[in-house]
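Exam review. A common question shows you a sequence with its structure tokens and asks you to describe the fold in words. Practice with the pair below. Do the first one on your own.
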Amino acid sequence: MMKKLNKIVPLLMFLLLAVAAVCLASSGGEGGGGDESNPVWTMIWRTFNFLILMALLWKLLGDKIKVFFGDRRVEIASMIEEADKAKADAEKEYAEYKQKLANVDKDIQEIKESIMGELEGEKQRIIDEGKAAAERIVAQAKWSAEQEVLKAKNDLRNQVIDMAGDMAAGLVTNSMTADDQKRLLEEYLDKVGKEH
């Protein structure tokens, strides 16, 4: 802030003195010297006073004015350069966002197709798993049915054997006499005796 103030104060003083010199030079003959009756000489005298005042001001403030305007030029050039850079950055960002927005529909379509592909794959996997499970259940049911049939056959065979045994025992018991029973008992005892 102080740096700018140091630049502005000499400029304001220069403008104030320039305006004051013009005002003094244009005032009517209050001891300004020269011939008041001839307006040409009055104009020459006033111009000469103004030029002397300007030369003095230039001598005293010239370097400061040059520095001020030089610094100001650099500052303005820097500000313009920064503004151009900011504008270029903004245009670049705008182009990027515009490109992204242009590709949004395409991206949405790609995401949608990807999800649909994944869903179709998942659907097929579930169907395949269901078929495999159904095949396992059918195979297990077949095996269980076969086992039940085998068990039923064995149970039936055992019942038939038991019934045949009971019938044979009944027939043998009814058809055997006491002599036959005695003879069978003796044969059995002989056979057991020979083996031991």
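Now try the second one, then compare your answer with the model answer below.
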Amino acid sequence: MMALRRRFAALFHDRTLGEDRLVEGEPYTLEHVPGVLALERICFPAPWSLELLRQEAVARDHAWNLVAFVDEDLAAYLFNWIVLDEMHLLNFAVAPALQGRGLGGFLLDWMLAEAARNGYHSLSLEVRESNAAARGLYASRGFDIVYRRRGYYTDNGEDALVMARSLDPAGGP
């Protein structure tokens, strides 16, 4: 496997503004924990703990964790674990002000292309059954529901839908 890119700068099309905007990504580190914790608490009914976010900020061979900035403000983050030739998306959040504007799709497309470029064969994730927006985004990128984890979410016992898709290491996502 090749080394996953740890930094990027690219343009995404902001559907609300009707213009391209710069998004910059970099590795998730301890300095990002306060901002990610704040975004986590806004985006999720059962946010990750401060301790768990600190643990994910430590660089490890099996983790590929990124933060993304728009206009120098923390806009999103993606936490992935790598298991052999597969990636698993652990956590993905976009700031509410940027949801539905194209940033999440852009980051997901970028991540899929980067994973395929590096020889990974599949990507999987869990999503709340009630999270129609996220499910729609994943389905629009070729993810299929492959399994239901009953009572997965501890805050309310909601089921998680495991979604997965294959990647073509030779030809991209």
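Model answer, second protein: Strands lie at 8-14, 19-27, 63-70, 73-83, 86-94, 122-128, 144-149, 160-166. Helices lie at 33-43, 50-56, 103-117, 132-140. Full marks require stating both points clearly.
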